[in-house]
Amino acid sequence: MPELPEVETVRRTLQRLVAGKTIRSVDVRLPRIVRRPAEPEAFARALEGLTIRGVERRGKFLKIIFDELLLLSHLRMEGRYGLYDAADEVENHTHVIFRFTDDTELRYRDVRQFGTMDLFRVGEETREGPLAKLGLEPLDEAFTPSAFREALGSRKTKIKPLLLNQEVVVGIGNIYVDEALHAAGIHPERAADSLTRAELARLHEAIVTTLSASVEAGGSSVKSYVNGQGEQGAYQFSLRAYGREGEPCVSGCGGTIEKFVVGGRGTHICPRCQPANPARSGGSSRSANRGRKHT
């Protein structure tokens, strides 16, 4: 599933490609993609003649903004947008087509058919629907170390599943949780309430640094992700833990990346940099300091 950096990259691409374009018609070819309104014909009629004013993001959701309406889109596993000329052949698994007055088309393809679209009046999306319960935005100025500590509270939940909880912090999926925990030198099975103030500060910094670096690299194309122009990201070449099972830890600690399951998710760690019991192992600040460097 695309995570925050990938969705942000798609947002930036769509902002450049479709902002200012006016919709002539909408063709919904797979009705279940559209959840609100329930009738795809009503969805299409509501968008006819409207101009896209901008494209924003909240967590893993794209927000396509019109004057009074807002289209909320979640890509799920393999959803993707692309801008085409009207004369271009329509590819398989194209489920929604937004036809513009300049004879270009924004097409939504989704092999797995898990993506969703919801139409709201501007402002309604924050009071109801999937955005209403979302947590802190990790690349927002409001995501301070103190706000992060407050969001985690005194929960005894393992830190990795807690970071994957979108009601706590949004947009951090499996890849970037593994990367941030490795950079911070924190074992993913540590209870959140066991983390010291210094460890939480390192983790906060690691989350921001990791996500920011991935955004600048265009995200990670680990599987099928591409942006709105069909381009892959490059951050997968900088991954330090995720997907590197059996390889040497890049921190130079002499450890080897291991993989196991935490909360039902495949998890990658360096047991030397991320000890399960840091008090017994002498702490992890040395490895964490090295881990914050992204190459």
How large is the count of helical segments? 8
Largest sheet features: 5 strands, mixed
Radius of gyration from CA coordinates = 21 Å
Overall geometry: elongated
Strand content: 15-25%
The CA-CA distance between the termini, in Å, is 24 Å
Low-confidence stretches: 283-295
- H/E order of the elements? HEEHEEEEEEEHHHHEEHH
**Major β-sheet strand ordering:** 2-9-5-4-3
The total beta strand count reads 11
Describe the structure in your own words:
Helix 1 packs parallel to helix 6 and helix 5 (174-184) packs across helix 6 (197-216). The strands form three sheets. This protein has a five-stranded mixed β-sheet, covered by helices on one side. The protein is of the alpha+beta class. The longest helix is centred in the C-terminal third of the chain and has 20 residues, at 197-216. The chain has helices at residues 4-18, 40-47, 145-152, 159-164, 174-184, 197-216, 278-281, 285-291; strands at 23-28, 34-36, 54-58, 61-65, 69-74, 80-85, 94-100, 104-109, 116-121, 258-262, 265-269.
Features:
295 residues, five-stranded mixed β-sheet, elongated, disordered C terminus
